[in-house]
Write a structure and sequence with these properties.
about 160 residues; Rossmann fold; binds NADP nicotinamide-adenine-dinucleotide phosphate
Length: about 160
């Protein structure tokens, strides 16, 4: 059977690291995304997987990561949008617009940016599969058609706080 290919964003630690480890055990060829090179290389070496520099808040970084993956693979089978931040634990009266923007930039805009860059590589996978992990919940969308992705992203935004 052809080796399946998976990308886990924020794969250098925590749930992303463990997800990458399990995917590798299941026989996937695994790429982890990491925003910081040293952390990415260290985790990739521990997991014996590949790594891509990928900061979900940085358009150039995400596009560059997609281009690098395309150079090496002709498709992506599973994308796990795991990278995220918990945000500040302030009470409502202390929460600022800046706090909210930071969480939205990473947890909502980030996955949309990653989808936009990587879905073209997923179109050749059968079936296309997209999985997004967000604050306190998980949005799963096995359909990469625009309407389905929009609904998943909107749900992620609503569930973010
Ligand atoms: N743990 C839980 O109980 C829980 C519950 C519900 C939801 N979640 C969500 O599940 C995801 C993983 O949680 P976790 O507990 O494993 O968190 P974690 O240990 O803090 O790991 C988060 C990962 O995301 C990466 N990351 C953060 N901002 C990024 C960015 N701008 N670009 C690329 N990578 C970025 C981190 O990289 P750095 O090492 O560079 O910071 C790290 O690899 C998060 O989205 C979190 O909000 C977690």
């Amino acid at each position: 059977m052809t080796e399946r290919i998976a990308l886990v964003t924020g794969g250098n630690k925590g749930l992303g690291f463990e997800t990458a480890r399990r995917l590798k055990d299941m026989g996937f060829r695994v790429y982890i995304g990491a925003r910081e090179a040293e952390r990415g290389m260290e985790a990739a070496s521990q997991l014996n997987v590949e790594w891509l520099q990928l900061d979900v808040t940085d358009d150039a970084s995400v596009r560059h990561a997609a281009a690098r993956l395309r150079e090496r693979e002709n498709r992506l089978d599973v994308l796990i949008n795991n990278a995220g931040i918990a945000g500040s634990r302030k009470v409502a009266a202390e929460l600022t617009g800046e706090d909210a923007e930071s969480v939205f930039a990473t947890n909502v805009v980030g996955p949309v940016r990653v989808m936009n860059a990587f879905i073209p590589l997923m179109e050749t996978s059968t079936p296309p599969r997209y999985r997004e992990r967000v604050q306190r919940t998980r949005v799963v969308c096995r359909d990469t058609r625009p309407a389905a992705v929009r609904v998943a992203s909107l749900l992620a935004a609503l569930l973010c706080f």
